[in-house]
Amino acid sequence: MDVKKYYGIENDSQMAITVDDQIVEPHGMISDGKAYVQYEVVRDYINSRFYWDANENKLLYTLPTDIVTVEIGSKDYSVSKEKKSEDYVILKTEGNTTYVALDFIQQYTNIDYEVYDSPNRVMITCDWGKKQVATVKSDTQVRYRGGVKSPIVTDVKKKDEVIVLENEQNWKKILTKDGYIGYVKKNALKNEKTKNVTRDFTEPEYTSIKKDYTINMAWHNVTNSTANSGLQQRLADSKGLTTIVPTWFHVKDTEGNLESIASTDYVNYAHQAGLEVWAAIRDFDGGIGSNDESLQLLSYSSRRENLINQLIGAVMQVGIDGINVDFEKISKDCGVHYIQFIRELSVKCRQNGIVLSVDNYVPKGYNQQYNRKEQGVMADYVIIMGYDEHNGSSLEAGSVSSYEFVKEGIEETIKEVPAEKVINGIPFFTRLWSETPKTQEELNQEAGTEAADYPMKVTSEALGMSTARDKISQAGAETTLDETTGNNYATWEADGVTYEIWLEDATSIEPKLQLMKENKLAGTAAWALGQESSDIWDLILKYVN
């Protein structure tokens, strides 16, 4: 078989790439005697922590307390403010394609590689640990598929060691020491055994701050400077809080400028009361507020840096203990830039002893771009917003936080993030739903849209716990337990409108706290302070003490 065809190589300037047990594309190249691979291969197969800024043409790598920066066409690079250099060009471009020298990648990644010619190819090993190996009995041929009629890819010599990838009836799929993947007859191998394959490499340690108590946190929805004075009353009405999160910071514009209503008096009062203050920064409700704006902000390294520097400056100035990132406008395209922002922010937080927590939706297929797994490495705490199951834009009425929704949120999150870093968010609010049948005109307008599947026109308003109870009493309605959601439920009709409500109260909150305890999470968080009924604090204390 033509080996160029086997590797999909079209010309001599291309270099085929094998990563562990697979041939990957796009191809690399040999330049000035060095092996280069395209950035996409680095990201997808070798080390996803390398970040390419296509807007500012630079490659970044985030270490625990430093950021490595490489410019195109240079042998020099910087580690934070320190300049370093290599004897080769680290980053090359051809047209719109960016190539990175494998030697440079290897400095920061636990890989080994060998380069071969005829044709140009590189065999990269990333996956260390136990491998099935075997010895070739005598010179034999490696075929493209299992079967004597399949084309011959290469030959292996007597005593060669190969890695066994798969067993078929009479054939074994193998990886040769020079990077060919193919099949040999079962009886061509001997001494098959498990071998532990390792390489000396010290992985950087991304240290975390871990509190020695169960976190009992609440967000304080502060909309202007005057509202900061409400802290005293909020704390007087609560019990056992360890952490308060005022919504102080907003991103003013896509250049990364900060809007702040942070208050030193507030921080001092909270500290005197024995609380830590983790201030929230948001990409909505003031300043920027769309997916496109968040992408414009986060996809430029200089804009992220500007925002982080202003944020850390404000935190240090006021004496804030932690930063809570609540970015909810992250599209699929923005995911790689968002997680790079979290990495870079984590560097500054580590350097300054600031707690970093990150808010997340309940994991679903459509929000995987938030990259919880990497958050779990970089951040001190990963917070699940275990509410808004049904929200202001929902097309049908329902619970804001059913038991199964919360359970799924915790179970899916701890698959990717260590449980001792996870905080589960609970709602101190619910929604009162108003439903009226749609008119024929409304149904006609919605034809062909998702909304057309719902015959009722639905609106809702968010209510605190006590207000929600009052609404039911005023309507003279009764509550019953909705076994499906775990909420106390009520419905009534007035003036042609059907009202529905799934209460958040001790009945629904306790099972959520039990889930926190059973899964050994770091604690609980509540949205938002001032919406709770007073009896809820004793219940929370039962689970956090």
TrEMBL record:
Keywords, in A-Z order: Hydrolase
Ranges of residues in domain GH18: 213-545
UniProt KW Hydrolase keyword: yes
GO molecular function, one term: chitin binding
SUPFAM superfamilies for the chain: (Trans)glycosidases (SSF51445), Copper amine oxidase, domain N (SSF55383)
Transmembrane segments: none
Entries under PROSITE patterns matching the protein: GH18_2
Record's protein name: Glycosyl hydrolase family 18
Pfam families assigned to the protein according to its UniProt record, in alphabetical order: Cu_amine_oxidN1 (PF07833), Glyco_hydro_18 (PF00704)
InterPro entries: Chitinase_II/V-like_cat (IPR011583), Chitinase_insertion_sf (IPR029070), Cu_amine_oxidase-like_N (IPR012854), GH (IPR017853), Glyco_hydro18_cat (IPR001223), Mao_N_sf (IPR036582)
SMART domains for the chain: Glyco_18
Biological process annotations from GO: carbohydrate metabolic process
Keyword Hydrolase recorded: yes
